[in-house]
Amino acid sequence: MSTLYALEHVTVRYGARTVLSIDHLEIPAGEFLAVVGPSGAGKSTLLRLLCFLERPTTGTVRYDGRTWPDGAPLDVRREVTLVFQRPLLLDGTVEQNVAYGLRLRGEPADERVAATLELLGLSHLARARARTLSGGELQRVALGRALVLRPRVLLLDEPTANLDPHNVALIEEAIVALHREYGTTVVIVTHNLHQARRLAPRTAVLLDGHLVEDGPTDVLLEGRGTDPRTRAFVSGEMVY
Ligand SMILES: Nc1ncnc2c1ncn2[C@@H]1O[C@H](COP(=O)(O)OP(=O)(O)OP(=O)(O)O)[C@@H](O)[C@H]1O
């Protein structure tokens, strides 16, 4: 697999505080990577770097062999879609929400929107107002807005936090379907170690802004990681 992202000596600082510090991280094209770590570890910050919403304070984020010190151009930013932890939807119908990105890009929407709603079990809600939906339905609409674009990279920030098993299963199946069908590169931030195991062959562990370890998910999550902090984190012994 070719390298899609290469992070070298990356730091992100807010004032005097360094919230992220990654010496080296490569993400191959087509990979499904999980990022785990305690609250405040820098996981969302990493996702913002990967979708060019934020620039590193020092170091480089190379994408497809290129880097843009003044910000990535629109066509590159459009290859990468981030689904936020707390999604903001338009005050319209489910269908309008899912169609929005395609319309913005001037691409035909109807068939793709219908297929996406179907994939996410939302067809019967196509004309419902977004503001009338349950939390699980809202999360599925937010994911639908991303999936319909068939992005090259899908970044997910806790896409199933606080959802019931039915919604979790629908969301996971839709993500896996996109990944399989289009070879989409997926990076999922999750607090749910079982979810990382179900979905991602490789996991990166972030603690206190540092990439402590990355490797095969089953090895790390079975407590066989090489770093003692990884073992403490996955066994729930870590106090934070
Ligand atoms: N714009 C900002 N200005 C100042 N500090 C920030 C800013 N954004 C994030 N931080 C701080 O950076 C640290 C890392 O935040 P981040 O959201 O990346 O963590 P996280 O691992 O995603 O946490 P969680 O699991 O709770 O979402 C936190 O301590 C946060 O308070």
Number of strands: 9
Distance between termini? 36 Å
Overall pLDDT score: 93
Number of domains: 1
What class would the helix/strand composition place it in? alpha/beta
Protein name: ABC transporter related protein
Keywords: ATP-binding, Nucleotide-binding, Phosphate transport, Transport
Domain ABC transporter: 5-233
GO molecular function: ATP binding; ATP hydrolysis activity; phosphate transmembrane transporter activity
Describe the protein's architecture and organization:
This is ABC transporter related protein. GO terms for molecular function: ATP binding; ATP hydrolysis activity; phosphate transmembrane transporter activity. One of its GO terms (biological process) is phosphate ion transmembrane transport. One of its GO terms (cellular component) is membrane. With 240 residues, this protein is of the alpha/beta class. It has a single domain (3-235), classed as P-loop containing nucleotide triphosphate hydrolases (Rossmann fold), CATH 3.40.50.300. 36% of the residues lie in helices and 26% in strands. A 6-stranded mixed β-sheet has the order 5-6-7-3-8-9, sandwiched between helices. A 3-stranded antiparallel β-sheet has the order 2-1-4, with helices on one face. Strand 1 (3-14) and strand 2 form a beta hairpin. Helix 5 runs parallel beside helix 6. The longest helix is centred in the C-terminal third of the chain and has 18 residues, at 165-182. It is globular. It starts with a strand and ends in a 6-residue tail after the last helix. The relative contact order is 0.17. The model has no long low-confidence stretch (mean pLDDT 93). Bound molecules: adenosine-5'-triphosphate. Residues 14, 19, 37, 39-45 line the site of adenosine-5'-triphosphate (ATP).
